[in-house]
Design goal:
The protein is an alpha/beta fold. It contains 12 helices and 7 strands.
Length: 279
C-alpha cells in the first residue's frame, strides 16, 4: 500500500517511533540512494554533526528500504548515515519502509524539502522532479511538502536563471530574494552581469530589486551607466535608424514591445526629424 504522503513527513517518520519500528542496521550494509536530491555531501561539512553523534548518538533514525536479506538502500538521512560512519559507529538506527524504488524517490525528495536540508537550487530541482515524475499539480505538491503554492512557484522560477547564477545561489553567494530580483531581467547575459554586481558590492535584497528594475528598463548594469551587453539585433536596428535619421537613436526592446528614443539638439533639428518621419 502506498504511504500516506499527503499527510507530510509525519506520516513517514513518527515523532517518537516505537522501539519495535526502529532497527539497528550495520552501516556497511547500507548503500546511498541514487535519487538523493542533494547533489554533493562533503565530509568537511559534517564535522558538527559527527561531534554531536559522538556525544549523543544518532537521535533521529534514518529511513531505508530492504534490497535483500543483508542489504539496504537509503531513502532519507544520508548526512546522518555518513556522519555516523565518520564518528566510528558500526550500526545506525533505521526505520525500514516497504516501498518501490519510485516511491523511495518521492519520500527522499519530500523528506529533504520538509527538513530544509537542501540549498534553494536543489529544492527547486526536487520540486520540478516531483511535478514531472509524479504528475503533480502545484496545489498537490503544496499539500505534500507543506509549503504554499507561491513559494513553490518562486522556487521553480529560479531554474530559468543561467547556470552561473544558479551556482551562486547554490553556494549561498546569492539569496532567494536576490534571485527573485534578477528574474525581473529577461536577458540571461544581463542577469549574470547584475548578479556579479550584487555579489561584488554586497547589495541587499532591496538594492538588488532596484537594480533589477533599472536593468530591465534600461539594459544598464554598471554604476557609470555604460552598456555591458547589447543584443546584436537591437544594435543593428539602432544603427540603421541613426543612419536614416542622422541623429542618435536608442531602442528599448523587451519581449514583443518597446520604445524608440530619438535625440535632437535644437528646434530646427526637431523640425527636420518631424519632416523625415512624416514622409
Amino acid at each position: 500500500m502506498k504511504p500516506a504522503l499527503g499527510k507530510g513527513l509525519s506520516a513517514l517518520i513518527p515523532e517518537r517511533p516505537a522501539a519495535s519500528q526502529v532497527y539497528e542496521i550495520e552501516i556497511t550494509s547500507i548503500t546511498p540512494n541514487e535519487y538523493q536530491p542533494r547533489k554533493a555531501i562533503r565530509d568537511s561539512t559534517l564535522t558538527e554533526l559527527v561531534e554531536s553523534i559522538k556525544t549523543k548518538g544518532v537521535i533521529q533514525p534514518i529511513i531505508v528500504r530492504k534490497v535483500s536479506d543483508n542489504s539496504y538502500q537509503l531513502i532519507a538521512g544520508e548526512r546522518r548515515w555518513r556522519a555516523a560512519g565518520l564518528a566510528g559507529l558500526s550500526k545506525i538506527p533505521a526505520i525500514i519502509k516497504d516501498v518501490a524504488p519510485q516511491e523511495s524517490l518521492e519520500i527522499a525528495l519530500i523528506e529533504n524539502i520538509q527538513r530544509e536540508d537542501l540549498n534553494p537550487v536543489e529544492t527547486a530541482e526536487a520540486f520540478q522532479r516531483l511535478i514531472k515524475d509524479f504528475n503533480l499539480t502545484h496545489d498537490e505538491l503544496s499539500r505534500k511538502v507543506g509549503k504554499d503554492r507561491a513559494t513553490i512557484t518562486n522556487y521553480l522560477r529560479i531554474l530559468k536563471l543561467p547556470s552561473e547564477v544558479k551556482s551562486w545561489i547554490a553556494d549561498g553567494s546569492l539569496s532567494m530574494g536576490h534571485a527573485k530580483a534578477l528574474l525581473q531581467i529577461e536577458d540571461p547575459a544581463l542577469q549574470v552581469e547584475a548578479a556579479r554586481r550584487i555579489i561584488r558590492e554586497g547589495l541587499s535584497v532591496r538594492e538588488a530589486e532596484a537594480l533589477g528594475r533599472k536593468v530591465a528598463s534600461t539594459g544598464l548594469v554598471s554604476r557609470k551607466g555604460r552598456h555591458l551587453y547589447k543584443d546584436p539585433h537591437v544594435a543593428s536596428v539602432e544603427e540603421r535608424l541613426m543612419h536614416a535619421l542622422g541623429t542618435k537613436v536608442r531602442l528599448r526592446h523587451r519581449g514583443n514591445k518597446g520604445r524608440i528614443e530619438i535625440e535632437y539638439y535644437s528646434l530646427e533639428e526637431l523640425d527636420r526629424l518631424i519632416e523625415i518621419l512624416s514622409r
